[in-house]
Known about the structure:
Blueprint: E1 11-21, H1 25-35, E2 43-49, E3 55-61, H2 64-71, E4 80-88, E5 101-102, E6 108-113, H3 119-128, H4 138-152, H5 157-167, E7 172-178, E8 184-190, E9 195-198, E10 202-206, E11 218-221, E12 226-231, E13 248-253, E14 258-259, E15 264-265, H6 281-287, H7 289-303, H8 307-317, E16 321-326, H9 328-345, E17 348-353, H10 354-357, E18 369-374, H11 380-391, E19 395-400, H12 406-410, E20 413-416, H13 429-448, H14 454-475, H15 478-488, E21 493-498, H16 503-517, E22 520-525, E23 543-546, H17 553-564, E24 570-575, H18 579-584, E25 587-591, H19 599-617
Parallel strand pairs: 16-17, 16-18, 18-19, 19-20, 21-22, 21-23, 23-24, 24-25
Antiparallel strand pairs: 1-4, 1-10, 2-3, 2-4, 5-6, 6-7, 7-8, 8-12, 9-10, 9-11, 11-15, 12-13, 13-14
Helix pairs in contact: 3-4, 4-5, 7-13, 7-14, 9-13, 9-16, 13-14, 13-19, 14-19, 15-19, 16-19
This protein binds 2-deoxy-2-amino glucitol-6-phosphate (AGP).
Amino acid sequence: MQPFRGCSVHAIMCGIVGYIGKRQAYPVLVKGLHRLEYRGYDSAGVALINPSGRLNVYKSQGKVSDLEDTAQNQDLTGCIGIAHTRWATHGEPGYKNAHPHLSESGRLAIVHNGIIENYAALREMLIGQGRTFKSDTDTEVVVQLIEHLQEQDHLSFPQSVQKALQMVHGSYAVAVLDKQQPDTIVAARKGSPLVVGVGDDELFLGSDASPIIEYTNRVIYLEDEDMVILHMPGQDCASGRAEQAVAQIMLMTIRGERKTPQIQRVSMDVSQLEKGGYDHFMLKEICEQPQSLRSCLQSVKQTLSGTDAERIFSLLQSANRVLITACGTSWHAGLVAKYAIEQMVRVSVDVDYASELRYRQPVINNGDIVIAISQSGETADTLAAIDMAKKQGARVLSICNVIGSSIPRASDEVIYTMVGPEIGVASTKAFTAQVTVLTMLALVWGHRRNTLDDEHYTYLMQELDSLPDKIAQVLDHKEAVRQMAQTLSFASSCLYIGRSYNYPVALEGALKLKEISYIHAEGYPAAEMKHGPIALISQEMPVVTVATSSDIYDKLVSNIQEIRARQGRVMAVVNEGDTEVERLADVFVEVPRVAECLSPIVNIVPLQLLSYYVACLKGCDVDQPRNLAKSVTVE
Ligand code: AGP
């Protein structure tokens, strides 16, 4: 028997939707997939059980709209179904590997998010039992195993799913249909999120709450190794008697231990999932930052002054060292926090990419505090870094935007940013909220430790409150940024430079540009230009500089002069009335003055807009840039 040598095709960073109830399932499933499009994907599929008990599966490579084209004129009837969007990691995206996958007899259908690590051994075992496979996916191994257990061990549908999940190693969020049980969906999670929506006489599944909330705000966040049976006895679409069916939820672990479902209410509303008249979610989320920051400020003030505060500061007060860990934009927020915490709290702060921290065998001592920053709360590397740090005795505070997501649940304490769902893949309002939360944490923490005196504390708290209006002022000058974008859109590469608190802003501005306009951009501390990058300066290499007032403003002006002296083109973010830098720059955008430690929150906004307008000029897919996903749940 030749061992299986094909590379497994895993289904990760995907979207899952499920429905059973009084409505026709297909419209609910497809709309739910559209709600999950922001997660990034390259194929989509749906499985429905029609009133005659036939299991219909439709799949397509490409967008959800391609799936709708494939499925139109087909039999789309039925009140029960599951659906999936897949982001290819191993193996080409395509029909063969798209979900749902069927068992050999065609009786079962499964959708899956995660990695089954022992798929090869299970596949060989099943082939040894005479089973044949159509795809290279680890997911097909699971559905074949379930059917094998049904037939060999004469297990019920839920029991066969339960036993199969006890046999697999790895991570999963799965939903399974059995056409012989058209009133039941079985679902489970371990390491990949899955949410149950509880409606009136209807039940939903989603990788997050966004496919669910227009029908109900009552949800159950499944925990790792939870299995749930969604059952609608008396469910009979043929006669339309679905209305008489009563939804039943049976929650247990994959080992069969019964659990009581904890129903929570989601504060999100469906309007937050719509573009609201904007061309793109990214522009909407940039422009809603005045409101989102007001919401964030109100929430974090409450958190840092109420009963939560005592738990958070009792965790922090023992800190000898703070270790901040995150990925991407969230890592940039962590860099800003380093400056703020060290200056205001006088505690040592290290900042690590989570993907590096988890493997570099760091020295972590009891008393060290890890601050994990994540918009989605599902970033695999950040989650793994937290687990590693906790095993070494660290306590964890997470800063997150998605209530009930995996990272807050793995943390000792959490401060939510409360800016509502961020749909655009490029993170914008989450960044300004993260920096706001972290800066306020530093302020309150420093004031409690008497490393920040009353006068500074009071002044900076007032400055924090002025942020929404100052960002609104920046948004009133979008046209100046659009002009700047005209120039930048012809560049093939550019530099972003800043110093001190605005060095991370340079990094974040560069990330925004490259991830949505595909122009190479690099962020640098401005003083580092002389140590290499100045060799790049030419007419063809624009330099974007963040040059607002700071303790080292004069040194930054010198850096700009060095660039100008070598015919470099300078685009500057400057404070209103700063004629010195305006004279040096080819183009500039003015922003209101604010305390330096808060300036990243204002200064990043023109750079968010700049990347947006450049991407639009280049005709890029702003909300779903190529190769990217909103939540990187792969390592
Ligand atoms: C930022 O625009 C990117 N979408 C990406 O770098 C993101 O910040 C990173 O993947 C971290 O995501 P998280 O905040 O959800 O953990």
